[in-house]
Amino acid sequence: MDNFLDKLPEMDLMRSEKMTLVQLIIPVESAHRSVTYLGELGLLQFRDLNADKSPFQRTFANQVKRCGEMSRKLRFFKDQIDKAGLRCSPRHEIEPDIELGDLERQLADHEHEVLEMNSNSEKLRQTYNELLEFKIVLQKASGFLVSSNAHAIGDETELHESTYSNNGFIESASLLEQELRPEPLNQSGLRFISGIINKDKLLRFERMLFRATRGNMLFNQTPSDEEIMDPSTSEMVEKIVFVVFFSGEQARTKILKICEAFGANCYPVPEDTTKQRQLTREVLSRLSDLEATLDAGTRHRNSALNSVGYSLAKWITTVRREKAVYDTLNMLNFDVTKKCLVGEGWCPTFAKTQIHEVLQRATFDSNSQVGVIFHVMQAVESPPTYFRTNKLTNAFQEIIDAYGVARYQEANPAVYSVVTYPFLFAVMFGDWGHGLCLLIGALYLLARERKLSTQKLGSFMEMLFGGRYVILLMALFSIYCGLIYNEFFSVPFHIFGASAYKCRDTTCSDAYTVGLIKYRDPYPFGVDPSWRGSRSELPYLNSLKMKMSILLGIAQMNLGLILSFFNARFFSSSLDIRYQFIPQMIFLNSLFGYLSLLIIIKWCTGSQADLYHILLLLMAFIAVPWMLFPKPFALRKIHMERFQGRTYGVLGTSEVDLDVEPDSARGHQEEEFNFSEIFVHQLIHSIEFVLGSVSNTASYLRLWALSLAHSELSTVFYEKVLLLAWGYDNILIRLIGVAVFAFATAFILLMMETLSAFLHALRLHWVEFMGKFFHGDGYKFKPFSFALISDDDE
Questions:
Q1: Torsion angle defined by CA atoms of residues 106, 107, 108 and 113, in that order, rounded to the nearest 10 degrees
Q2: How far apart are CA 669 and CA 661, in angstroms?
Q3: Which of helix, strand or coil describes residue 113?
Q4: What is the pLDDT of residues 107-147, one digit of tens each?
Q5: Helices (H), 249-392
Q6: Lowest mean pLDDT: which of 27-36, 58-67, 381-390, 669-678?
Q7: pLDDT grade, residue 615 (50/70/90)?
Q8: With 70 as the cut, is the pLDDT of residue 690 above it?
Q9: Which of 589, 686, 754, 787 has the fewest CB atoms within 10 Å distance of its CB?
């Protein structure tokens, strides 16, 4: 048996890459270039040797701060370019690399120039807006003044008589009557304030004026007829011109304070018509000059922003890379006496040669007299997990990593999920018409792959694009399972030949209600189309899909147990093989494996076999204590032998490899051996497997349930919507029926059902399959790489 096990393959291609802990001793003069070259290679994960220091206490904190300030300036330039609506494409000619100090000076000069232009432009815009408001107030307020004077002159005689016939009338006269008097108007102190205010503040403004003056004012208003730009928000706002007539210095003070509080701008308007015209001409002349000045300033500012925009993308990349380099240098220890930096990190074993070559090139390019020392260290902690993926396997690896990162060198479930995941999805989604729709969507994403990969997509579209190959495989498997189910939008077709059944009675030409008889060889591929509409259609399909779900579930759970065997064998843990893998295989297959065998026998021969076999039940009963008791006592025995009389013996044995046996005694080398804790842990693990074997097998019946639900929903939409509408001899009803059928197919069957089947397949892999062997307590390999720097890293 041992010879047979030794001859089995090691599954190296199914495991993470072998990792090596390395140490770098880098001279100061070549440190920056060495880290830069390592970032371009992207195969070394540095360890933070200064974790106890704050970011401000590290060696290169000032350089990181400078890079952060340059990033802020670059974001400022980008915002200014976007705000100006400019499109600056990078230059095609190759630009020479720029030093960080030179770039810092250029950015400071450009920022000072742009800020100064923005300040001048803002001041000119403010002046322009004030003159524009002044012009509008002159035009609108003069109408109120002219109409008031005309009214006053027409009633001059009557007002004079009324006033002088009663001397106390002036004190008690209303403000409106005082306003109508032309000459005595000024003698009595009647004044006015004209200005302009935002339309949304008008009602509150007028109410406040009324309350402050106790009604002793006359408020006139009119729309400005043109929108004015708000300098603070750069948006066009609608404003209202107002003229307030009042009397008294106290009222004037109150009104001016209210205008200031509401942001209303007040402008003086002369009562003389000649002065109004002269002032209007002056304002128009100054407006014309300011427009020319603003246009010239805008052109100059856009020219300056264009000159920055041509190199903006390259500068952003340069600053990001420099900041990443200095952040990495801050993770190294700085030895002042030896003038060198000491760093440690993880790298794949296959990359040691490439890293060594890169460091040699950095030493040569920096003209350093001392080379970089690169040597391998002995690792105590567990290495990171690194899987090399491509565009196809990356999405499946992300699905597995969402549950947990595989332990170092643990069997990778993503390798098998590339096939099993889309297949289990297709079992629940089997319809080759719907599969073709998914295929069209996947092919569209693949056809635009190069263009979409360079664009910034929304969260939903980014998720679809990232899983384009998952959708492609799900579509292909759905077409395959749909051909097996013989369903095209729930409609069967005679694709692979004629049916094997015919009507029992010759009078039932097209009806399938009186039963079918078999008259030729079985249908060559998939479900016979004659089952559709027959009395036994639902019982037949239910039996087929239910038993198929059990078979697929038992097969996948057995695959998980087999992978647990290869894990135990790889980590040289014979205890797990003898006291976990073997009893688990016996228990699972004595009950449910035998059930699967009965299903296959009945399908092949049609004969019935005994449902329960006493020998198999006895084996399943024995397997439970086999899982529970031997392993804790074996661990206790090994511990007693190791620490009683064998203190100086060799500690590493194949029975208990403490590095890789979490359930045994990982971490108990120097701790007190707690037998009760290990026994309780093993008890929980055994009970979980026994109960989980039943619940997990039942959980795979979701394949049957969702497949049936998808088929019946598709049938309902086809028969009760499309065919029902098509039965009417009315083009409008037919169009409505087609529209409802298309909407239901797209949003219910292709979106909701796809999401439902996707999540159920995810559950079957995470719990039922991976729970048999997958620990998922590792951590990802995150190398220092410029290709992995994102916008969020700033």
A1: 90
A2: 12
A3: helix
A4: 999 999 999 998 998 888 888 888 888 888 888 877 777 65
A5: 249-261, 273-329, 352-365
A6: 669-678
A7: confident
A8: yes
A9: 787
Q: Give the CA-trace dihedral at 504, 510, 514, 515, to 10 degrees.
A: 60
Q: Are 171 and 230 in contact (CB under 8 A)?
A: no
Reading across the β-sheet that carries 218-223, which strands appear in turn? 218-223, 239-247, 190-198, 265-266
Tokens of 26: 């880098």
Give the max Cα distance, the chain. Answer: 135
User: H or E stretch including 190?
Assistant: strand 190-198
Token couple for 393: 């396997």
pLDDT for 704-754, tens place per residue? 999 999 999 999 999 888 989 888 888 999 999 999 999 999 999 999 999
**CA dist., res. 344 & res. 46, Å (int):** 6
Residue 190's pLDDT is 74
Structure tokens at 429: 């989604």
Contact 368, 29 (CB under 8 A): yes
| Pairwise CA distance, residues 47 & 332, whole Å | 8
- Token code pair at residue 130: 């004030």
- Collapsing DSSP to helix, strand or coil, 270 comes out as coil
Q: What one-character DSSP code corresponds to residue 491?
A: B
Backbone torsion region of residue 234, taken as left when φ is above 0, otherwise alpha when ψ lies between -120 and 50, otherwise beta: left
Question: Helix H segments across 173-272?
Answer: 175-179, 183-187, 202-212, 249-261
Residue 537's Cα: distance from chain center in Å? 44
Separation between Cα atoms, residue 419 and residue 556, nearest integer Å: 12
Q: What is the C-alpha separation between 696 and 683, in angstroms, rounded?
A: 19
On whether the CB atoms of residues 44 and 784 are closer than 8 A, the answer is yes
Q: How confident is the model at residue 609 (pLDDT cuts 50, 70, 90)?
A: low
Cβ-contact 367, 441 below 8 angstroms: no
Q: Does residue 180 contact residue 150 with C-beta atoms inside 8 Å?
A: no
Rounded CA-CA distance 313/74 in Å is: 9
Neighbours of 532 (CB within 10 A): 18
The structure tokens listed for 289 are 């000059």
Provide the phi-psi class of 490: left if phi over 0, else alpha when psi is between -120 and 50, else beta. Answer: left
Percentage of the residues of the chain whose pLDDT score is greater than 70: 84
Which residues touch 323 (CB under 8 Å, ≥6 apart)? 64, 67, 68, 71, 793, 794
* Cα 651 to Cα 633: distance, rounded to the nearest angstrom: 18
- Report residue 673: phi and psi, to 5°: -75, 120
Q: What is the pLDDT of residue 86?
A: 83
**Structure tokens given for 43:** 């195969």
Q: Do 362 and 372 meet the contact criterion of CB atoms below 8 Å apart?
A: yes
What are 520-575's pLDDT values in tens digits? 788 888 888 888 777 778 888 888 999 999 999 999 999 999 999 999 999 888 89
Total residue count of the chain as it appears in this document: 794
Parallel, antiparallel, or unpaired: how do β-strands 235-237 and 228-230 relate? antiparallel
pLDDT of res. 161: 39
DSSP code string of 500-515: SEEESSTT-SS--SS-
Continuous segment of H or E residues that includes residue 160? helix 156-165
Angle at 751 between CA 749 and CA 757, to 5 degrees: 80
Q: Are 255 and 264 in contact (CB under 8 A)?
A: no
> Long-range CB contacts (< 8 A, 24+ apart) of 197-203?
197/239, 197/240, 197/242, 197/259, 197/262, 197/263, 197/264, 197/265, 198/237, 198/238, 198/239, 198/240, 198/263, 199/223, 199/237, 199/238, 199/239, 199/240, 201/262, 201/263, 201/264, 202/240, 202/242
DSSP assignment of 629-649: SHHHHHHHHHHHHHHSS-TTS
User: Quick check: 470 and 420 in contact, CB under 8 A?
Assistant: no
What pLDDT was estimated at residue 180? Answer: 34
Q: How confident is the model at residue 273 (pLDDT cuts 50, 70, 90)?
A: confident
Q: List, for residues 632-664, the tens digit of each pLDDT value.
A: 888 888 888 877 655 444 444 444 444 433 433
